[in-house]
Structure formats: structure tokens, C-alpha cells
Specification:
The longest helix is centred in the middle third of the chain and has 10 residues. The N and C termini lie far apart (45 Å). Strand 2 and strand 3 form a beta hairpin. The chain has 79 residues and is α+β, with helices and mostly antiparallel strands. It has 1 helix and 4 strands. It is globular and about 30 Å long. A 4-stranded mixed β-sheet has the order 3-2-1-4, with helices on one face. Helices cover 13% and strands 22% of the residues.
């Protein structure tokens, strides 16, 4: 499990819910709900944690799949 640094809380992107969204927490605080990697980046920016390299940081624990896994997302069919 990644260790929190003195400057950043332990960030967890939790396993996907049935709709594919993932809860993002910093320590014991829910920072937001993400439906895509861009949402995680925005949630961390709003929490003033935007200096964390989301896809590569050891400060982020990805549960139930990494930053490229969003199983609830579906492509819009082409018309």
C-alpha cells in the first residue's frame, strides 16, 4: 500500500461502482466521484493536490483496476 507523504494525504481511487464511477478519497475524506481519469485529475486539482502525477504516482492507490479501467463507460453508438 502506498504511503502518504507529509505533503499529500493517502489518495485512493476505489473500485468501480455498478455505473463505473469511482469514489476518490484523501485519507478519510471523500474528495469526489469520478467517471473518467479526467475527473480524477479535476478532483485532485480542486483539492489542491494537482501536483500529483495521477497515472504514475505511488501516492495514489488504484483499487479494482488502474487509471485506464472504467468498466461502466460505454461508447456512444455511431448513428
Amino acid at each position: 500500500m502506498p504511503q502518504a507523504s507529509p505533503h499529500f494525504p493517502h489518495i485512493v481511487v476505489h473500485s468501480p461502482a455498478l455505473d463505473g464511477s469511482r469514489r476518490v478519497t484523501g485519507g478519510d475524506v471523500i474528495l469526489g466521484i469520478a467517471s473518467h481519469l479526467d475527473d480524477v485529475i479535476e478532483i485532485l486539482r480542486l483539492a489542491d493536490l494537482d501536483r500529483i502525477a495521477v497515472e504514475e504516482s505511488d501516492l495514489i492507490e488504484w483499487q479494482g483496476g488502474g487509471p485506464d479501467e472504467w468498466p461502466g463507460l460505454s461508447e456512444h453508438p455511431e448513428e
